[in-house]
Amino acid sequence: MQDCLGLNRPMRIDEITVPKGKSQAVYLLHRAGYHVMGHPGAFGTVMRKPGSPYVVKLYEANDRAYTTFAEFCRTTTNPYFPRIIGRIVEVTPHYRAVRLEPLSSPRDEYGATRFLMACEDYIMGRSKIDDDTWSLMEDHPELKEACLALRTLMSEHALHLDLYFYNLMVRGDQYVFIDPVKNAPFD
């Protein structure tokens, strides 16, 4: 009886069959040749198939912060933000998918962490910002613009800053914020 229902055969993602949850979709994409990139987060997983011109991010539908950030990136051209390819797709009421340009993990964790700390000080408007941070912002106007845009995004949408090593990637030598905000606690 089980075999006639197809329960012993592998499930496929196609126009008819859609996995109900993100973890099931990750499993099926892995079986189709996709590999998890970086560090899977609490709400999202980025996957890439070798040879593909984009990566796929699957994330929980209740991650309002990422949806807000991705929609913002679709309409913004700044080298410190990822390029979104296409639109955000609500796969089921439980999770969403979006295609992004392929990026790489930073090689220099110490340098990336110092960069993130400087950006956090600037975004949060800390009163004691060191000379290196001021120089970084003045020497890189697009970074200054990106930091101010994140501050505005946080303020307008009641989001919190979420800058840490695994939320930063690189395009060549260029740092890219890939998931810099999070929902407010108890959101």
Task: Write a brief caption for the model.
This protein is α+β, with helices and mostly antiparallel strands and 187 residues long. 33% of the residues lie in helices and 23% in strands. The strands form three sheets. The chain has a five-stranded antiparallel β-sheet, with helices on both faces. It has a two-stranded antiparallel sheet with strand order 6-9. A two-stranded antiparallel sheet has the order 7-8.
Helix/strand order: HEEEHEEHHHEEEE
Rounded Rg: 19 Å
Q: What spatial form do the alpha-carbon principal axes imply?
A: globular
Q: Output the CATH topology of the largest domain.
A: Phosphorylase Kinase, domain 1
Give the oligomeric state of the chains in this entry, treating copies of one chain as homo and distinct chains as hetero. single chain
Largest sheet: 5 strands, antiparallel
**Helicity range:** 25-40%
Number of strands: 9
Structural class: alpha+beta
- The separation of the N and C termini measures 45 Å
Structure in words:
The longest helix has 17 residues, at 141-157. The protein has two domains: 3-100, Phosphorylase Kinase, domain 1; 109-183, no CATH class. The protein is 33% helix and 23% strand. The chain has five helices and nine strands. The model is unreliable at 1-9 (pLDDT under 50). The relative contact order is 0.15. It has helices spanning 22-31, 64-74, 109-123, 131-139, 141-157, and strands at 35-37, 44-48, 55-60, 84-92, 95-100, 159-161, 168-171, 174-177, 181-183. With 187 residues, it is an alpha+beta fold. The protein is globular.
